[in-house]
Amino acid sequence: MDKKRYKIFFSLVFILLILSFITLNFSLVSAQQGINVDTGGGDINFINGIRDNFGEGTKPVTDFFASWQSGDIDLGLAKLLFLILIALVIYSVIETIPFLGKERNVAIKVVITAIVAFFATAYLTPQEIYAIILSYTSLGFVLAALIPFVILVFFSITLAKEHGGGTKIFLKIVWTAFIFFLLYKLVVFWMQGNVTTTLFVGYLLMIILSILYIFFLQDTIIKNWFEEDVKMAKLRYQQLNKWRREKSKREREEFEDYTNRVGI
Question: Where are the domains positioned within the chain?
Fold first, then answer.
């Protein structure tokens, strides 16, 4: 199954889960309240009942986004999202281990990821979750600064590789926005008195690295990356040509040997 089919499959699964959740809530509310349909007297509230029950069924979803917008997100949900995020990071790291590489020992990788991610988040208290969300801790720094930095680096390289030099202005805008975001976080921490020396140095280092990358290192890294791809392509081409020559030579020798044996 190719990437496009994977995306379609997971999108359909996500939509089905949302629809199932809404339908379940709708059914529960309908069972509790009932729908008033008086066919004898002509007083039909069927449409109003559907509207009210649908509103009640989708209330958990709307309440969630309302809480998220006001900054009052449920800590249980935040903990679950941290669990998923940490599991993804851990699985990506495990993928780089030689004896647990890609398409090998998938079950073992999933089990290791689940255990490590569970214990990494199981004993987080509400205060620690708030601290992580506000980026006061080492994990908060990793989630708010380090991981986005790494993602932006590979995003920049991939974008430049696929679309060429025309993306330079766009990438500069993206990196500038990221730098201002880090500066904003650092200033807020400083004004609130919640910044430690280690955290300050970490954010400052990310800001400096971002500035160096976008103005000095990006072209060099992309150039070296392309040169490495060209070298690998040339090497594969040379190996393929060598294999073809050896194959042709072997077939020619076999043919000459055959003609000599049959006396042609």
Answer: 1-72, 73-133
